[in-house]
Amino acid sequence: MRVLADENMPFVQELFGEWAEVITRPGRQLQAADLHDIDALLVRSVTHVNEALLSDARRLSFVGTATIGCDHIDTHLLQQRGIVFASAPGCNKVAVGDYVLAALLRIATHKNWQLKDKTLAVVGAGNTGSEVARRAEGLGMRVWRCDPPRADAGASGLVDYAQALTADVISFHVPITHEGPYATHHLLNAQHIARLNEHQVLINACRGDTWDNQTLLARQQGEKPLTLVMDVWEHEPRLLAELVPHVLIATPHIAGYSLEGKARGTFALYRALCQHIGQPERHSLSDLLPPPGVRAVSLQAAPEQHRLEQLVRLVYDIELDDRRFRRGLASGHAGFFDQLRKEYAERRELGSLLLSDGWVDARLGFKTLASAADNH
Ligand SMILES: NC(=O)c1ccc[n+]([C@@H]2O[C@H](COP(=O)([O-])OP(=O)(O)OC[C@H]3O[C@@H](n4cnc5c(N)ncnc54)[C@H](O)[C@@H]3O)[C@@H](O)[C@H]2O)c1
Ligand SMILES: O=C(O)[C@H](O)[C@H](O)COP(=O)(O)O
Fold first, then answer.
1. How far apart are CA 13 and CA 35, in angstroms?
2. What would the pLDDT profile of 49-85 be if each residue is shown by its tens digit?
3. 172 membership: H or E segment, kind and range
4. Are residues 182 and 119 in the same domain?
5. What pTM did the predictor assign?
6. Annotated catalytic, 58?
7. Which of the residues 29, 79, 93, 328 could staple to 127 if both were Cys, CB 3.0 to 4.6 A apart?
8. Best probe residue, ligand 2, of 48, 68, 99 (max atoms within 8 Å of C-beta)
9. Which are the contacts of 206, defined by CB distance < 8 A and separation ≥ 6?
10. 134 and 206 both lie in a single domain
11. What is the pLDDT of residues 283-342, one digit of tens each?
12. Domain Erythronate-4-phosphate dehydrogenase dimerisation spans what residues (predicted)?
């Protein structure tokens, strides 16, 4: 069996190498000829799996994406051609929670905010949105969840989009969709941008095309700019460079890039492919992960906000990602965005740092020594 995988997908040799020949290629450059004698294709979000890519894929019986978003896959085409499809729902939701938590603590320092006095709205209350909501509740914030598809299906306790847009912080966690009653392309459009006030913060860690970046730039160049955190950009990897100086935290679509998140993504595809070909699973997720650099700390009491920021930074320093991004952009190298993603340094989740005794709040993503021992 021949498996073709994106070169940015970790652990493929370890998981598939025992019973498959594994070939790796840059995901953005995959072409029809590469799939000529391939049985299983494993991609990330940068590969468009469509008619053109599959035109010569006579042997292909399985396509998997090690991501949450599936907007790059023509699932209808796969169904028509009888090709089994798998994705990795929720695989990197914890990483997105870590990213937004780190961003909130950074924003609080920048704006001299006490987060417990502020309201956060999550737009899209699915896997990543719920994780972010939990973290914000752990910070003592008032949290609103906005999710019209769920509201229309009968879920309670949700707010509408108009109310969400009045929160101090608005964090977007929707899939990108272009049609239907809940289409999210330019969900944040010119009218919404005009209505926001200069004290509000917007976070985008879902898909760049959910925000109208050109109109946002015009707003930022005016007298009352917003505070922006952007992990995703319209038209990646060719983003609107003029917008970057007006963004407080700018990163290259890496919110979900924890080692654990990537491992869960590859592992979900391993499971699905094993099932597809009737191969028993011989690995577990925990075998794949090396021990983290910092293992345990002890806190006797709940840390105040500034101390919590330091604690989070021990594991994930979002400012470092922001600095690398600006340096990459300033270098003028056209491929800087993809290069940063390809060479992304190993990042562990907050849960890799165990709190040995005293204070712990699981909503913030931390684990205790005892809970880690229970999981083994
Ligand atoms: N930046 C990153 O690294 C990163 C990482 C993971 C996921 N993502 C993106 O985030 C998206 C969301 O991920 P998820 O795991 O939370 O997905 P999910 O499917 O679990 O949740 C998405 C939620 O959005 C809701 N929704 C759909 N249309 C909406 C609308 N118009 N307004 C409000 N809510 C709406 C859905 O009902 C659903 O509850 C993914 O599709 C992916 O594109 C980005
Ligand atoms: O949808 C997702 O899961 C994320 O956007 C994912 O982290 C994107 O990473 P990529 O597949 O582009 O490496």
1. 18
2. 999 999 999 999 999 999 999 999 999 999 999 999 9
3. strand 169-172
4. yes
5. 0.97
6. no
7. 93
8. 68
9. 69, 124, 128, 172, 173, 174, 175, 176, 232
10. yes
11. 998 889 999 988 888 888 888 999 999 999 999 999 999 999 999 999 999 999 999 999
12. 288-355
